[in-house]
Every structure is written in structure tokens, then in C-alpha cells.
Amino acid sequence: MVALRAAAIVLAVALILDARLGTHAPSRALVALDVSGSWAQGGTTGRFAEAAQRARGAGASGGELLLFGDSLRAAAVPDRPADGASRVGQAVDRASALGRPLIVITDGQLEDAEVLGQLSAGSRVEVLAARTAMDVAVRSLELPQAAVPGDSVELRALFVTAGAPVPAVTAALRLADGTTIATAPLGSLGAWSEREWRVRFRVPERRDALVVRVIAQASGDAEHHNDTLSTVLDVRGGPSAVFVSTSPDEDARFALDLMRGAMALTVRGFVRVAPGQWRQEGTLAPVEESVVHEALARAPVAVLHGDTAVFGPPRAFTRGSLLLVVPPREEEGEYFTERVLGSPLSPALAGLAWDSLPPIVVGPSPVGAAWSALMARRGRRFDERVVVAGDDAPRRIAVMPVRGLWRWKFRGGRSADAFAAVWGGVFDWMARGDVDERPARVASPWVREGEPVTWRRGAGRDSVVTVRLRQDGTTADVNVALRFSDAVSTATSPPLAAGVWRATVGTGTSAFVVNAGAEWIPRRPIVSRSAVAGDAAVGAPSSLRNGWWWYALLLAALCAEWVMRRRVGLR
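Above: the chain's sequence. Below: its structure in C-alpha cell form.
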């Protein structure tokens, strides 16, 4: 009886402490060495030499040595790290799949550091962080891809700092020939902080692809590879599209931003602020009504928002592709988009979740349209109306009797994706045959070294498009074959060296900039850690809690001890 009670107590304590069974025969650890280019920040690779020595030592102790950065691979340790990314996720996934601990040796500037929380027990992360130094960098910028001479465009740039405060930062906007367009003091920035700079400037009177550079200037800056970020502004002789709004609202504002930023169109916008009083969008400079009428009539792509009959029948005086946006004057209830119909916009609208979008206001459905792209139903009613309809012949004309799409953009996330798909699909369909005849065009006017170059399908329908690339200052051409399909309108080509590149596709030529790699941008480093929890590695002894029979044995011992006590008259 006493022995049963003692055994039950010992077993209960062992279960509480999750005692292990057997001896520990640990499996060999995987050793993952970071070979990204961020080791070179500060102008020295001494830290990487120490990291490589540690990795070789861990590998000689029985671990399998892997390299990670932009990919995971088993290879010899390079003399200089040069990968264009710092992603450790593949190494963590491989260690988890094999059930083995992982030893990560890195400089701490990981893109996906959150995955380290999935490491198995026995893993550890060794960080050889760089010394704290003052550094300010230009992380990103936004600028319309195209404009007309004399137009006003806005540039947005994001400046970030490293682990030391920067007393004074100056932002400069220059052209490739050294012409300074704008400068502004940004003041002091703290450690690991960021600040956005917005500047509106007048497009120079040059009809060319202008290389625009944003430069961060600070006294004592320790790293100059990340001080400049360049892009290309395509300055054309005349507007490819004209956007006119008689009742400017959030719908018009967001649609015009998308038209300029995402569709690679040169857009001139006009808004009516009072009867007979027109302003140029952006600068709000006064414009004669006759100028607006002429620009709208001659534009190959025209968008008329609000009162579509302000200049008379719009189908009569315009000659190019036409979009009529007719916001309903009266609100007859809330409408919810629910289904996509077969139309030229189907590829852009397919695959989106329409049941979770904010409500919109939809007017009466257009009459006589050749196709309808998107339907909306009134809440708790059977009233169904068309959101987008259009005709392909004799020219492309679309009608959108809708108001309130700006709510999708304002909410962000999937709703913003739906906003971009609807407006972008309409704009792309309108411009497909008239603005850009190139079979393919670069998706972004700037990329970073080490990143693949993304291309969008243009006017051509060929599944394979050959692009001839040439870097400024060289005479050698690089030919790239892009492969498109009916379901995918984008393709990628291998990364390129930093510099200004000219792309020739068919008879058209465009320019884009490859900037210094993202590994030069400072990131807050993680700290060294060891994984004391998590999944057990293969070879680790099992614990008592993993076997149900131990709980059954404990219960049986307690019951037997109680029965024996009752038999001898004890309670």
C-alpha cells in the first residue's frame, strides 16, 4: 500500500515535470550561413570572415553547412557575400521538415526574421552585428511614369536611418545631367527612424526619358551606396490621355492617381470648380474652357467624370477611346458587387472576392452596350444593376454609372486590390490599341540590383517577346526572351547590374534604372537567441506526457491504493 502511494506520487511528479525517457541521441544540426550583401555595409567584410570561420567550425563538428540569402543551397563559402536578399525562411523550413536543429549565423539584417520563432528545440541564432554608425538612405520613391512638358507632378520619397541619430538631413532632387530641381531640409532623424519627403515640381521642357535622382545628404554619413535612388520620367510631346471632372470627388482623385501611377499613361487632368471656371489638376492653374474642350476632343484616351454632356454629346466630339463616369445624383440604396460577367475586363476582374467590399451607389444600367463586366445587387432587394459596360466598335467606349468606389481604395487590403482591378482594367482596355504599340513594357521605371525585372504584356499577342537591353556607357546588347500566356500578363527577366538601361521592343525604346541592391538599406538587426522551446528535434528522447498509458498507470495506482486502504478499514 505504501509502495503504491509512493509510486503514484513519483509518477505524478514526473508527469508534472514532463520527464524524458531514455538517453538523448541528438541529430546533426544544419548550419545556415548568411551570404547576403548586407555584410558589406560599412565598407568592410571582416565580420563575414569571422562568420565563415564559425560556420566552417560548426560544419566540421558534424553539422551540414548551407548558404542562404536570395536562395538556399549547399555550396562552398564565398570570399565575398553578394546575394541580393536576406531570407532565412527556406532554411527554417528545411530544418523543420528534417526534424533537425538549425544554427543560423547572420549579420542580423533579415527580411523574414519572424520565421525564426518556428525553430525546433536546440537551435540557435548567432548574430555578428555591425558597429553602430550614422547612415541615412533613400528606401523608396513614387513618381508618375510619364508626363508632358510643363506639367506638374508630385514625387514621394522615403528616407530611413540606421542605428545612430542623424543631426541634419537634406533631400535633393536632380536630373542625371546634374540639374537640381529641388532641395529641402528634413531636419534631424533618430535612430531607426523614417521620414517621407513630398515635392511637386514642373516637368522640364524636354521630350525624352529623364533620369530623376533623389539624394540624401548628411554630414558624417558612413555608407554612400544607399544615398541615391533613381527613376525614369518619360516626357512625351503631348498627352496620351485626358481626365476631365465636372464634379471632382474622391472617386475622381483616386482614379486619376491610378491612371497616372499604374498605367504608364501621360495624363493631363482638368477639374471644374464653378460654372465656366476650370483648373488644371495638381497646380490649380486657371484654364480656358475652350482649352479643356480641345484637349478632350483630340485625346486618344478620354475620361469624362460628372456631367458628361458639359461640352455636348461626348460621343460626337471625341475621337479616341472614351470612358463616361456618371455618378448617380440620387442615392436609391446601397449596392453590393456580386458577380463578374464575360467581357474584355474578365482577366483583370477574375479571382477577386466581391462579397466583402464596401457598398457603392449605382445608377440605372446603360442601354445598348455590347457587354457588361460587373454586376451589383441592392441590399435585401432583387434590383440588379451594371457597374461597368462598354462597346468595342467602332471605337472603345465604356460607361460607369457608379459612385463610391473610393471606399474600396480607402479601406485598403483586398478592397484596394478590387479598386485597382476595376479602374485599371478599364484604363488598360481603353489604352490597349492606341497608346503603346510595344509588345511588352517594363512594369516599373526602377528596380534594385539583384531583383528580377518585371514586364507587362503590351499591345502584341505573341506568347514570346524578345527584348534587347543595353546599359548606358556600354556597347554590348543583352537579349532577353519573355514568355507570356493568356492567363498571365506579366513576365520576369534575370536581374541586371546597377545602371541606366535602354530596352528596345519592336520599334519602341524605353528606359529604366537598376539601383543599388536592397541589401545596402539599413534594417534593424535581430539579437542572438537560442530556441529552448519548440518542436523536438529527431533523436530527442520522448517525454512521459506523450504516452497516454502513463496517465492510465497513475490512475490505476491511485485506485489500487484506495481499494487496499478500504479493505484494511482505513479511509
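The chain has ten helices and 34 strands.
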